[in-house]
Amino acid sequence: MTTEPLVRLGDATLRGTHADGVFSFKDIPYARAERFGLPEPVVLSGERDARTFGPTAPQGSTRIPGVDLEGIVGPGWIPGDDYLTSNVWTPDPTATGLPVMVFVHGGSFTGGSASTAGYDGSSFARDGVVLVTVNYRLGVLGFGSVPGFPENRGLRDQIAALEWVRDNVSAFGGDPATVTVFGESAGALSVCDLLAVLPPGLVRRAISQSGGGSHLLTPAQAAVTTRAVEEVLGGPVTEADDAALVDALTRVALGRPDLTVDGVRDPLMGLSPIGPVLDGDLFHGQPVDAVAAGAASGVDVLVGHNSDEMNLYLVGLGAALPEVTPEVLAFSVARLHPEPARVVDAYRGAGRGDTPGELLAAIGTDFMFAVPTARVADAHAPHAAGTWRYEFTWRSPAFGGLLGACHGIELPFVFDVLDRVDFGLLGVTPNAETTALATSVHAAWVGFARDGDPGWPRYTPERPAVRRIGPEWTTTEEADGKERAVWNGVR
Fold first, then answer.
1. Does 185 qualify as catalytic in the annotation?
2. Prediction pTM value
3. Residue 245's Cα: distance from chain center in Å?
4. Start and end of every Carboxylesterase type B domain (predicted)?
């Protein structure tokens, strides 16, 4: 049976949907903003149809020939003026005190959306959580360094969304004092950035899935991308329309610009030409340093990465893993470390790979995800709030098993949507093993949001416990192999 429930927000009434015990309300504006301006609160009035998803942020195509990733990257650009919106799933809008989870999507800061099928919040609502997904500005509009305008507009959108949740989530049955912000990939990097700048009390807990707190670009690095975009445009970014900005940034990204400037290496490893900036306003240093100084001392934190993150890029998006040559390996690692030969020798000696492709995948996984994740855990662990850490180890059978525990592979399990969404390339299909794993992973995330406990020991300076999540769940205090010591002092 399906009905159309109503929720009152101030002077507005939202008309949503109700099916199988879950109420959903979609395309709810949380802010409005001029193209390069700061987000401003929005006041709604009258009745609003909240039964379907709305526009998404301007972005390039999310479709790759022969590759289906729509389950985790979304439908792409759906044009419309008001796309700073949220979607809400709740078990009961008349309830009180339900835990709240706010998901920040990934997509390299250039793509993705809150309406992605794989981010359906029904399973969270079924288990007593109010689940919120949010859109934010992407690409040049969200993260381009534009003289005369504020930096980090996409992050400021996320802050505005969290403020909207604080002020309005009780109308959906949620407790504004029990909010968990979580995200994956660019969303996880955003979560770690937010830990450094959010005012106390706006969130109670945070989850970073494949992120880190040391990826801010310097102003000089951000300027490289702005200049490159303007060269493609033939003029200032402020004079180009949205479609032209998307096209120009896409062309720049295809050229894989080297953002190493003034001896500072590209913290995004070439995976995106754009991202949050060390602006001297929101950020006066890398977020991990602010966390170490106590910026998130009142926030429980769960951080983790997947064992084979880079296989998504080196296998799934080009099947290039077997084609990496020793020369490509040496060149690529030299962009990450001043002593590339020492790094390769350390990883080969630790058994992290035999071929150049395998070694590059392991090194890239650690540089971009595993080591920054460990640093955030180490920075947060001495403070009063709890710290937990995981490594997702379940290996996809796709591409003959080469895809492994790649970037994004945990998402279907976290959202527990295997029976409702086709994950195509990722090779995640419902069977006895995957269904049981989804039940367990999802329960751990719900438990953390509800009680501040995912179900395994805390990560502390004395006992750096890491939960390995896969067909078997184990706990180790020796998750970081000796080879990762090559990154000491390197960012």
1. yes
2. 0.96
3. 23
4. 5-474
Pick from 84, 134, 130, 82: nearest CA to 104: 134
Taking alpha carbons only, the member of 206, 207, 249 closest to residue 227 is 249
**Which residue(s) pair with 466 in the sheet?**
476
Q: Where are the beta strands (DSSP E) in 10-157?
A: 11-15, 17-19, 22-29, 31-32, 40-41, 45-49, 85-90, 98-104, 130-134
User: Which phi and psi (to 5°) does residue 94 adopt?
Assistant: -90, 0
- Positions of the chain with pLDDT lower than 50, given as ranges: 1
Check the CA dihedral 327-333-334-340 and report its sign: negative
Cβ-contact 220, 279 below 8 angstroms = no
Q: Phi and psi at residue 39, in whole multiples of 5°?
A: -70, 140
Sign of CA dihedral 19, 132, 393, 266: positive
Amino acid type, 156: R
- Greatest Cα pair distance, the chain, in angstroms, is 66
Selecting among 151, 230, 309, 391, the annotated active-site residue is 309
Edge-to-edge strand list for the sheet holding 22-29: 2-3, 17-19, 22-29, 85-90, 130-134, 98-104, 174-184, 205-209, 300-306, 387-392, 466-469, 474-476
Which among 164, 217, 202, 191 is positioned nearest to 106, based on CA atoms? 191
Task: Please give the domain boundaries of the chain with CATH numbers for all domains.
Answer: 63-75+138-487 (3.40.50.1820)
Predicted local distance difference test score (pLDDT) of residue 1: 44
Q: Active-site residue among 108, 115, 170, 185?
A: 185
Which listed residue (105, 305, 380, 407) is catalytic?
A: 407
Contact present, 107 and 186 (Cβ < 8 Å): yes
Would you state the pLDDT for residue 251?
Answer: 95
Asked if 491 and 214 count as a contact pair (C-beta separation under 8 A), the reply is yes
The predicted-structure confidence for 408-417, as pLDDT tens digits, reads as follows 999 999 999 9
Residue 133's SS3 state is strand
Annotation says 407 is catalytic: yes
Query: 466-469 and 387-392: which strand pairing?
Result: parallel
Residue 276 DSSP label: -
- pLDDT tens track for 255-311: 888 899 998 999 999 999 999 999 999 999 999 999 999 999 999 999 999 999 999
Q: Tokens standing for 268?
A: 């995004």
Q: How many CB atoms lie within 10 A of CB 160?
A: 22
